[in-house]
Amino acid sequence: MPVQNVDYKKDGAAEDFVASLKETGFGVIRNHPIDMALVERIYEQWAAFFDSEEKQQWRFDPKTQDGYFPADVSETAKGASQKDLKEYYHVYPWGKVPDALEEDIRCYYRQANALAGELLSWIERYSPAQIAKDFSEPLSDMIADSQQTLLRILYYPPMAAETPVDAVRAAAHEDINLITLLPAANEPGLEVMGRDGEWMAVPCDPGQLIINVGDMLQEASGGHFPSTTHRVVNPEGDSARKARLSLPLFLHPRPDVRLSDRYTADSYLKERLKELGVI
Ligand SMILES: O=C(O)CCC(=O)C(=O)O
Ligand SMILES: [Fe+2]
């Protein structure tokens, strides 16, 4: 089954969306309530931010992890030999944001967070009873007042003349959190690994929203929803001269939320961030 593209307003949307998540770990939603003009504006504003030297004043705080992460400290995916070719900025509800960029990004955060709550209730509704009975609380409650949900503004610079062999925009990885909401990026490149081990391009038509399952939902659902491996490939030809921006919202439960017998959200996150070498 390929990743399903679901019309948010159509009857049966919730069921089709959850079936796609179960089969592929990914779903695409169109006709959704997120303001895409706002997203376009955010891409423009933040492209200018990443192009400026001002970003150096917003460097991340290693303790709290909010702010700007330059390319030389950005992530190395689990098992990858090179750092990803990306920079990013982490926005938390309590975190720092440059004044001129604050209103739009906080507005997007609220919209996307609200839609994520609804999608999590769709997921719960269409989880088999055997699986849902083990959720320690409704999935949408897990993120309700969370201060941990992270909005990342990602900037993949135009390809340099020389990059280290094996370095890619984002090496194959799985997301740590419950689910991720990702509006279509301004350039293609996102790929998901199918069950057959083949890479498939994820559609990035303007206006679409991509949702993927993260490791925490996989853990909480005993593997019913698979956290699917994905990556961002390097562009070729004319696109190599273009920057790519994307805007994933990583839905993180409150730290005390019990994911499974083995983990709380907090113990799970700490274990994974250590593996990534960012704490
Ligand atoms: O840039 C993208 O399209 C995806 C980014 C991603 O997978 C991540 O930051 O976890
Ligand atoms: Fe990801």
UniProtKB/TrEMBL annotation:
The residue stretches assigned to a coiled coil in this entry are none
Pfam family for this entry, one: 2OG-FeII_Oxy
Listed InterPro entries: DIOX_N, IPNS-like_FE2OG_OXY, IPNS-like_sf, Iron_ascorbate_oxido_reductase, Oxoglu/Fe-dep_dioxygenase_dom
Task: Say if the entry is tagged with keyword Zinc.
Answer: no
Kindly list the cofactors needed.
Answer: Fe(2+)
Top-level lineage group:
Bacteria
Gene3D superfamilies reported for this sequence: B-lactam Antibiotic, Isopenicillin N Synthase, Chain (2.60.120.330)
Q: What class of enzyme is it?
A: oxidoreductase
Q: Which GO terms describe its molecular function?
A: 2-oxoglutarate oxygenase/decarboxylase (ethylene-forming) activity; metal ion binding
Q: What does the record give as its pathway? A: Alkene biosynthesis; ethylene biosynthesis via 2-oxoglutarate
Query: Is the Metal-binding keyword given for this protein?
Result: yes
Q: Which GO terms describe its biological process?
A: ethylene biosynthetic process
**Record family assignment:** Belongs to the iron/ascorbate-dependent oxidoreductase family.
Cite the PANTHER family for this sequence: 2-OXOGLUTARATE (2OG) AND FE(II)-DEPENDENT OXYGENASE SUPERFAMILY PROTEIN-RELATED (PTHR47990)
Q: What is this protein called?
A: 2-oxoglutarate-dependent ethylene/succinate-forming enzyme
| The organism of origin for this protein | Larsenimonas rhizosphaerae
